[in-house]
Amino acid sequence: MQSLLLRMSGIYIHIPFCKKACHYCNFHFSTQLERKSELVDSLVQEIHWRKDYLSDKNIQTIYLGGGTPSLLSGEELNLIFAAIETNFDVAADVEVTLEANPDDLTLEKLQVLRDSPVNRLSIGIQSFYEEDLLYMNRSHDAKQAHDCIRDAKSLGFDNISIDLIYGSPTTSDDMWAHNIKQALVYDIPHLSCYALTVEPKTALAHMIKSEKTVAPQEDHAANQFSFLQAQAKAAGFLHYEISNFSLEGQFSRHNTNYWRGVHYLGIGPAAHSFDGVSRQWNVSHNIKYMDALGARDLSALFEVEVLSPADQTNEYILTSLRTMWGMDLGLIRVVAHRGLVVASAQRFLDEGLLRRDGDVFVLAEGAKFLADGIASGLFV
Predict the structure, then answer these.
(1) Based on the domain organization, do 225 and 314 belong to the same domain?
(2) Quick one: which of 40, 70, 129, 279 has the most CB atoms within 10 Å?
(3) Between β-strands 244-246 and 190-195, what pairing exists: parallel, antiparallel or unpaired?
């Protein structure tokens, strides 16, 4: 399996706080910020406690996700980075990504981040239009979307990714074209673009069920995704993962490692970890998380799933097919599984949805919107 290849490890830190709840979001977070500093202390405690989880303590990437990591103060960030430095061997060229909301990225905050180990910003722009942002219940406005990019670049941040959402009922094709054009005008080297989806138990799902708003339409999203592919390609971007586009050399190293099976440690409520043969996921509750750490109760902190050989094969199929590097039969450890995959792949090859180059299978350009369905059709 690709997860057995020798690579440096990664650390993911989940910051479970937001100013407000986006209507589409189903990630774990709280809008109650009173115990933020206390939870940061618990993150530091977990870093110390779980320092032996990774067999390779050489850390190539650190990723602060959420939630909204940009809500953390400089002091809180420094506590987290100091704990990582104490317990792990951090590469000199480590990629340190911080997810941020535009309204948090004031000049003052950007100056704090510039003086920290953070060297990559992932900014949740989502749209440059007010009607989209209101529909999504974002905490920023269109002016802040523009201002934060300009200010970040003026302070020397050049490794920037922005998130954009397509397929919203509020986003016309002309608006979507403008959102893409705006990113290109700002010389953003990395784009993460997601279809607006209706997740269970979200505010958006409730609003659609109660007929307070209309649901996104799959055809609308598919058309905007195709337009995105064409525009990104014309601008010299590589479509290196289903939702991600970048200029050469500007891939997200952390997320690329995840898709290619590199081991990582997840810290924080709801964070996941992977060591090659098992997955762990922390309790999705801030108070229970802090209490478990206080009591040093492993059984209350996380659950574990040991992956069978078939699970490992299927996970590799699912993640690798999402990337431009594709699925390599040679990296499927169980030889019998390789034959099963080849047999299942034939119909997708015949339909032009897959391409084969030796032992490597890659999604055809027009099949990327169907990635999950094709992957599941190859499972052993």
Answers:
(1) no
(2) 70
(3) antiparallel
Cis peptide before 276 (omega within 30 of 0): no
Instruction: Tell whether 158 and 36 lie within a shared domain.
Output: yes
pLDDT at 7: 57
Per-residue pLDDT reduced to its tens digit, 131-180: 999 999 999 999 999 999 999 999 999 999 999 999 999 999 999 999 99
Instruction: Give the H/E segment covering residue 87.
Output: helix 74-87
Q: Does a structural domain hold residue 269?
A: no
Q: In the chain, how many domains are there?
A: 2
Note down the domain range covering 136: 2-259
Q: Which of 259, 294, 318 is the last residue of a domain?
A: 259
- In this structure, the answer to whether residues 146 and 250 fall within a common structural domain is yes
What the block records as the tokens of 246 is: 């970048």
User: Do residues 252 and 335 share a domain?
Assistant: no
pTM over 0.85: yes
Q: What pLDDT, on the 0 to 100 scale, is given for residue 276?
A: 87
Q: Looking at the structure, do residues 119 and 205 belong to the same domain, yes or no?
A: yes
Q: Could you tell me if 68 and 29 are in contact, meaning their C-beta atoms sit under 8 angstroms apart?
A: yes
Alpha-carbon distance of 115 to 78, in angstroms, equals 10
The DSSP output letter for 370 is G
Beta bridge partners of 161: 122, 190
pLDDT of residue 365: 87
DSSP symbols for 119-138:
-EEEEEEE-S-HHHHHHHT-
Which ranges of 200-350 would DSSP assign to H, the alpha helix? Answer: 203-209, 218-234, 253-259, 286-295, 298-301, 309-320, 335-350
Q: Which two tokens stand for residue 363?
A: 């999604």
Give the domain CATH number at 228: 3.20.20.70
The identity of residue 113, as a single letter, is L
Q: Which two tokens stand for residue 37?
A: 């500093």
Task: Indicate whether 286 belongs to any domain.
Answer: no
Give the total residue count for the chain: 380
DSSP 3-state percent helix, strand, coil across the chain (nearest 5): 45, 20, 35
Report if residue 282 sits inside a domain: no
Tell me, what DSSP letter sits at residue 321?
T
CATH of the domain at 369: 1.10.10
Closest by CA to 63, choosing from 354, 257, 237, is: 257
Sequence-ordered alpha helix ranges (H) in 155-252: 173-185, 203-209, 218-234
